[in-house]
Specification:
Layout (H helix, E strand, L loop, with lengths): L6 H9 L28 H4 L6 E9 L4 E18 L4 E2 L1 E4 L2 E4 L1 E15 H4 L4 E7 L2 E6 L3 E7 L2 E12 L2 E10 L7 H6 L3 E10 L2 E3 L9 H5 L7 E4 L8 E5 L24 H9 L3 H10 L1 H11 L3 H7 L22 E2 L12 H6 L5 E5 L2 E3 L4 E4 L7 H4 L5 E9 L5 E7 L5 H7 L3 E3 L4 E3 L4
Parallel strand pairs: 16-17
Antiparallel strand pairs: 1-11, 1-13, 2-3, 2-6, 2-9, 2-12, 4-5, 7-10, 8-9, 10-11, 12-15, 14-15, 17-18, 19-20, 19-23, 20-21, 21-22
Helix pairs in contact: 6-8, 7-8
Amino acid sequence: MTIHDVATVADAVLYEGYLLYPYRSTATKNQSRWQFGVLGPPGAVEAGIGEDPSISAQILVRGTAATVALTVRFLHLQHRVVRDAQSRPVDELVVDARRYVSWDEAVACEVPVGPFALGELLPTEVSRPVDVDSAESVEDFGAGSLLRTRVALHGQLTVSADGDGDIARLTVTVTNTGSAATDADDAISRSFIGAHVIAEVRDGTFVSLIDPPDEFAEAARRCEHHRAFPVLAGPPDDDHTVLISPIILYDHPEVADQSQVELFDSTEIDEILTLRVMTMTDEEKEQARATDARAAAIIDRCEVLSPESMARLHGVLRDPHLPGSIATQTPGAPARLVPEIPDGTNWWDPAADLAVEPMSDAVVVDGVAVRRGSRVRLRPSRRADAHDLFFAGMTARVMTVHADVDGQTHVGVVIEDDPAAELHESYGRYYYFAPDEVEPLDSP
């Protein structure tokens, strides 16, 4: 295993919040970025100008001969200042139809530490520096220039281990040890941004803290964490890599196959963000491209997204019990009525979900088994809302039959005379009525 096996997920952690739609430097929400994993300089919290200086997590390791290697990853803020021909700072400059904007970029950094033999960690604590030098560069574009500067970062990684029965507990801490900041802008420039750690083990294995084996459950409960949580990373059948993340994840996290553009927006919803990008004006797109190279990449990728790729973003129906698709009933086969949830089974129990199949279940109305494909006339009752009353007397096709957690049955339909019926059907957007609000038009 190498860190590249978990790079996709780790990069999603690293850049979460780096850019927020509408991806322009002038957008209010982009004046306060870097939501997760920020290790501020000492004293920043007390002064009210920055964040806590450390993250830490405890990991369980099996194997007395194990060795552990760590990689600390983070973003280093880089001030980009636009200067005119006289080297005077300006917010913006347009040269030959190209726009240049002052902006805080970030440079991705990786600091490998170790490997450490578990045996040498048990009796003692080991510390290693996590330092990044300051830097300055100038990019000349004729009528002006870009001045990029980074201040030095100083940090420390501390690793220790203690025994817990037949297993070892590894404590990993990353701390910002740099100089104090003068204000909020100075504090973020001296911070480790999006900080997280990738841990790899040889001649041993890591133990899941989310779903530990029974014999290690108590040891897992005794683990303590600060502003981060370790999850198994990499392929589902591998337990040699852990991602210590400032974002809550599950074991073996993955980026969805449907997600083709790195949008960097906290709790992003790819489809709606892509649509929003596509509705930006040419002027707004130009401002976004001038803001950051990654913003330009977002605009470019969204503009060439194919209809097929866009359709994939709308959503995927997954049935955990039927791999690959939702069950459909064979035409002409006897209808299966919505089953009763077994006595003593709570609605949140997977066994309750296993019992129902909305695409093939049926409900009996006036002696007719109403199921997917049935034709009905809508008779909204006084329980219906005003919108439902517009459909009174209309005919509809049944798409699904659902049972809710209270044991009530609902019939999902599309209106036959609706010009958008085919679109609603493809998107799974149905209207729902109680069984006594539909009149079957098929024979019993």
